[in-house]
TrEMBL record:
<dbReference type="GO" id="GO:0022904">
    <property type="term" value="P:respiratory electron transport chain"/>
</dbReference>
<dbReference type="Pfam" id="PF01292">
    <property type="entry name" value="Ni_hydr_CYTB"/>
</dbReference>
<dbReference type="GO" id="GO:0020037">
    <property type="term" value="F:heme binding"/>
</dbReference>
<keyword id="KW-0813">Transport</keyword>
<dbReference type="GO" id="GO:0005886">
    <property type="term" value="C:plasma membrane"/>
</dbReference>
<dbReference type="InterPro" id="IPR016174">
    <property type="entry name" value="Di-haem_cyt_TM"/>
</dbReference>
<dbReference type="InterPro" id="IPR052168">
    <property type="entry name" value="Cytochrome_b561_oxidase"/>
</dbReference>
<keyword id="KW-0472">Membrane</keyword>
<dbReference type="InterPro" id="IPR011577">
    <property type="entry name" value="Cyt_b561_bac/Ni-Hgenase"/>
</dbReference>
<keyword id="KW-0349">Heme</keyword>
<keyword id="KW-0408">Iron</keyword>
<comment type="similarity">
    <text>Belongs to the cytochrome b561 family.</text>
</comment>
<keyword id="KW-1003">Cell membrane</keyword>
<dbReference type="GO" id="GO:0046872">
    <property type="term" value="F:metal ion binding"/>
</dbReference>
<protein>
    <submittedName>
        <fullName>Cytochrome B</fullName>
    </submittedName>
</protein>
<keyword id="KW-0249">Electron transport</keyword>
<keyword id="KW-1133">Transmembrane helix</keyword>
Length: 170
């Protein structure tokens, strides 16, 4: 269940693959918003997924910190890459939530349940922060994830069996 120097444990793997699927949906839906207005019907799902990602990334970070001494070891560049991934995985959904709260978009509702209310009136700095940074950092996260995947494949092809740490047998 816990991580060890050879591989990631069940909880880390669950966080990784669940969040990977959710971020894939977020990237596809964000792209579709730019293609045609009809895809804005996906917005409630995009927002709900973003909210759950915000919760999961905090839980994942706490789990990673708890398992830090037991995790597979990586080079400084790997650690910096993972730190950048975590920074963006935290920043992107939370900036989206800030925009939702203060951007005049109404309360965040998931399945008819109000998760948090909207600000009584639009808060300009929250709206501007979200409008400028949420999408920009989202695409930066997408690029970083693409690099993460590419490097995992490169290391695997070099015979380092890196994919087994997150996907292989325990």
């Amino acid at each position: 269940m816990q991580d060890n120097p050879q591989s990631y444990g069940t909880v880390s793997r669950l966080f990784h693959w669940l969040m990977a699927a959710m971020f894939a949906f977020m990237s596809v839906s964000a792209y579709l918003f730019t293609v045609d207005d009809e895809y804005f019907s996906l917005m409630p799902y995009h927002k709900a997924t973003g909210f759950f990602l915000a919760v999961l990334v905090v839980l994942r970070l706490l789990w990673a910190l708890k398992n830090a001494a037991r995790r597979p070891h990586g080079s400084l560049i790997v650690k910096l890459g993972h730190a950048a991934l975590y920074a963006l995985m935290i920043a992107v959904p939370f900036i989206g939530l800030i925009r939702q709260y203060g951007g005049g978009r109404g309360p965040l509702e998931i399945g008819g349940v109000t998760v948090f209310p909207a600000a009584p009136e639009k808060i300009q700095w929250m709206s501007e922060l979200g409008n400028h940074w949420h999408g920009l950092l989202g695409w930066a996260l997408f690029a970083l994830v693409a690099g993460h995947i590419l490097m995992a494949v490169v290391h695997q092809l070099k015979g380092e069996k890196i994919l087994n740490r997150m996907a292989g047998p325990r």
